[in-house]
Amino acid sequence: MDQAQRATKARNRGKSVLMRSVAVSVFLVGAIASQPVLTPAFAQGVSLSQVVIEGNQRVDNTTILKLAGIGRGPVTAAQLNDAYQGLQNSGLFEEVSVAPQGSRLVIRVKEYPMINAISFEGNKRLKDEVLSEAVQSKARRAYSPALAEADAASIAEGYEVQGRLAATVTPKIIRRSDNRVDLVFEITEGKSVEIERLAFVGNRAYSDRRLRQVLETKQAGLLRTFIRRDSLQPERLDVDKQLLRDFYLSRGFVDFEVLDASAEVARERDGVFVTFSVREGQQFKFGKITTVSEIEGLDAAPYDAALKVKSGSVYSPGVVDTNIARLENLALKQGLNFVTIEPRITRNDRDGTLDIAFTLVRGQKVFVERIDIEGNTTTLDQVVRRQFRTVEGDPFNPREIRQSAERIRALGYFADAKVNAEPGSAADQVVVNVDVEEQPTGSLSFGVSYGVQTGVGFSIGLTENNFLGRGQTLGLNLSTGTDNANSSITFVEPAFLGRDLKLKFNAFYNETDNQDATYDTRLIGISPAIEFPISELGRLELRYTLKNSKLLDLRQAVADDPATPDVDETVVATTPIIQRDAARGNLMSSGVGLSYSYDSRVGGLNPNGGVLLRFGLDYAGLGGDVKSVTASALAVAEQKVWNEEVTLRAIFEGGALHMIDGDSRVTDRYFGGGKIRGFERGGLGPRDLATDDALGGNLFAVARFEADFPLGLPEEYGISGGLFADFGSVWSLDDVAGASGTVDDGFHLRSAIGVSLFWNTPIGPLRFNFAKAVSKQSYDKEQVFDLTISTKF
């Protein structure tokens, strides 16, 4: 490098050093200018003789001096700086200046303006009233930029709950006179960001489709307009994690873990992809089941006999908890308090079993001091309190408290219910706190149905499940079709006389206007009843029924003679059977009855299936015009198979009407409609072949076999399929005299097969049936297609 190059390089280096020096100087000047103006004397501390405050309009001098923390007397530079920071951080002033002038200190402030009005622009999905509740800034209060930004974030969170992740909120002010401003939140709502896919990683025992049914969160589907669970809500993912844990744990996967639940937003921010990473682990079954007593003098044999759990069945915490409750109840029946059942589990990884030793131990003597209920603005305390099997003064049982909390949530009256226990006034006392949040309990429903025979039908229903906050149910229903009109009123008191005694009352009025028969009917009645448990899964109902029936508008029929098909139609009189029924006029029936039901599908030991058994017996003859005995029976068995995606169901049903005095009437007899698919309501059973009138029968028996399964469509669509096969018949009349051999009331087996399409819609669960009658009589009336509101037994 020559001498000229070295000189040039030195000059450039000198310029660079000079520029850095200038920059540092500017920075220091700016920093000094931004701080309170201090003189050298203040750096060592001086005594102030006067503090002057300027610029304040609404904030008085005393408040400013308190915020500054300074007054007359000795003051250091550090105290002066603290005074400046205190005023600046108070949120009351837009500008602050602390300027020492000799022995005087001048504090100049510029107050934030007063908010004149708050408005929202660009919002359509959320109304102004909702947004006003989300903001902390208020009219006639000082404007705070930090608070306005926090309000904007709160509004944006409200939109995120609705799945609008792209929503933006910008607070702006419009200056007015007298140091006032209008605060305006400019909102861009953006499009709803829906969950486009719910996926799972690590699941082997159950498919993605089955696990999606467990989650509270749903994918966006065909009914996204009505389903509001298809937007991403982070707090809902925590609920979904717990739902997955409960699902797997109840099926024996004791080591199940949710490793991660991640949500990925699409680049265009128009969709979210949620993925759950899980570790299933090994499925365990119950191994050796024993009962052990660690209480001196207490024999474990009766407790061992009370257990209802089978070795080799899939492990479930619910089964263990149910058996613990059974053993604790047995101890109470024996007069033993503070007996605790501890399930001691021995794990056998080699054969995948869990040995359970139900151990009877002496628990701590702790009593329930009181039960406090809060948050119930409509529901009476007694409605919540009766969900507890424990009352004040009883021994404290944590398991019973947990079950009581579940019963409170199951009522459906509350959006949230929290139950916890805390120490009471003494060491052996606890206080149970119940905190609930009310939610609407009434519903107004509209429905539409269609049947080939009945035509288009409309229904309207008004139901209040917590009438007057007493936990009572009041329902009004009205439905009409082409040839029928039905109305009813229902009232249910679930805790009559403060006990587990359900009081029911039902009143009904039904009319038929048969288009393809020579008679119409009218039926009106009332039926009060009481229902109570007689076992863990069994209930008994006792009822009284009073009803009045009448046949109306007897007409002549137009029919073809089967023997001479070429002859024109002829007018035929109503069958003598119907004529005799109509001649009896109004018939009053007064009687009592009972029904026993046993249902293990919900509270049984098998989470994937169960049975429903129902038997009824009614006697009519307590006054009135009818003396008869009616018996009915129903048996339903369900089981989920193939990873719980297919439900198999078998239904057996039958009924018998026996007249003690006289003949049965068409208004009391059985018809085949709804019993065997593929046939119209009066399409099978005893019939007058001359008039083509369906007469009904005194006996019926059917067997129905069904299989419900997914169709591969997203679960959110609510569409699934089914197959069915029905077998049965309706037969037997008391008297066919005068019918000239045209009435057939014999037993003829009918059968039908078909497919079903189920669709859960906002108007109700619809069922489309496509059926084909396989075995039938020549005079039976088929029904190939039917659309109805789906029902459950």
Q: Which key features would you list for this structure?
A:
793 residues, alpha+beta, Ubiquitin-like (UB roll), 7 domains, 16-stranded antiparallel β-barrel, 13 helices, 19% helix
Description:
- There is one protein chain.
- This protein is α+β, with helices and mostly antiparallel strands.
- It folds into seven domains: 1-34; 35-111, Ubiquitin-like (UB roll); 114-188, Ubiquitin-like (UB roll) (Roll); 194-279, Ubiquitin-like (UB roll) (Roll), CATH 3.10.20.310; 285-362, membrane protein fhac (Ubiquitin-like (UB roll)), CATH 3.10.20.310; 367-438, Ubiquitin-like (UB roll); 442-789, Porin (Beta Barrel), CATH 2.40.160.50.
- It is built from 13 helices and 38 strands.
- A hairpin with an 8-residue loop joins β21 (484-493) and β22 (502-512).
- The longest helix has 31 residues, at 3-33.
Class per helix and strand makeup: alpha+beta
Net shape? elongated
Evaluate the radius of gyration. Answer: 39 Å
- What percent strand? 35-45%
Number of domains: 7
Helix content: 10-25%
At the third CATH level, what is the topology name of the largest domain?
Porin
Spatial order of strands in the largest sheet = 18-19-20-21-22-23-24-27-28-29-30-33-34-36-37-38
Biggest sheet record: 16 strands, antiparallel, barrel
Domain POTRA: 46-112, 113-190, 366-439
Pfam families: Omp85, POTRA
Family: Belongs to the BamA family.
Subcellular location: Cell outer membrane; Membrane
List the helices and strands and how they pair.
Blueprint: H1 3-33, H2 40-44, E1 46-48, E2 50-54, H3 61-68, E3 73-75, H4 77-88, E4 93-101, E5 104-111, E6 114-121, H5 128-134, H6 145-161, E7 168-176, E8 180-188, E9 194-201, H7 208-212, H8 234-249, E10 257-265, E11 271-279, E12 285-293, H9 301-306, H10 317-333, E13 339-348, E14 353-362, E15 367-374, H11 381-385, H12 398-410, E16 414-423, E17 429-438, E18 442-451, E19 455-467, E20 472-480, E21 484-493, E22 502-512, E23 520-533, E24 538-552, E25 557-559, E26 570-572, H13 576-583, E27 587-599, E28 609-624, E29 627-641, E30 646-661, E31 687-688, E32 693-694, E33 699-710, E34 719-731, E35 743-744, E36 750-761, E37 764-775, E38 785-789
Parallel strand pairs: 2-5, 6-8, 9-11, 12-14, 15-17
Antiparallel strand pairs: 1-3, 4-5, 7-8, 10-11, 13-14, 16-17, 18-19, 18-38, 19-20, 20-21, 21-22, 22-23, 23-24, 24-27, 25-26, 27-28, 28-29, 29-30, 30-33, 31-32, 31-35, 33-34, 34-36, 36-37, 37-38
